[in-house]
Amino acid sequence: MGGIENKGDTLYICHGFGCEYRTAVTFSQKDKQRLRTILKRGHRSPEAERAAISKAVQWQENRVGPVVGSSNDIGGLDMGNGNVKGQMDCIDEATNTTSLLVYAGSQGWLKYHRAARPASRGFFLDGKYPHASAVVVDTTTEIPWVVDSWRLSNGKPPDILHMTKWLNMTSADLENPSGR
Fold it and tell me: Phi and psi dihedrals of 7, rounded to 5?
C-alpha cells in the first residue's frame, strides 16, 4: 500500500484500480472545520467515534468526488472499470480511507482510535477473492476494526466491522455484512 501519502492538508487520492492514478486534494480551512466537527461528534465513546468515522469517510468521498471524478464510483467488484479514472477498487478505497484516518489522527481529531496498516484477506486458494480494507484500532481495548468503503458506491456508509468477523466473511456475507 505504498500509495498512502499526505503532505500537510493535501491527501493524494488513489483511483483507477491499484492506485493507477493519484490526484492531490487539498483541504481548505472550511473542509478541515467540517471534518473536525464530524469527528468531534464521536468523542462520547469508541462506538460513537466509529459512527463518526463512517460519516467522515462519506464526507471525504463526496468532497473528493468532483475533483477526482469518483462521484459515480461503482461499489463492489466491477472489473470492467479497471484503469478508469475515478473508479476505485479495494486497494484505492483502503488507501484513501487510511490516508483520511492518518490525517485525522495527526490533527488530534481521533480520541479512541488510531489508524493502522490496511488489512487483507482471501488468496483464491482459500476460496475467497483477495480484498483489502482500512483499519482502526480501538485504543481502549486494542481491538482492530476494519473500515471498508469498497462494497458500496461513492459516498455510502462504509462497513465498520470487528476484524475477526471481516476476516471470516464469505461472498454470501457481502450481501448483509453487518447483519442489518
Answer: -135, 105
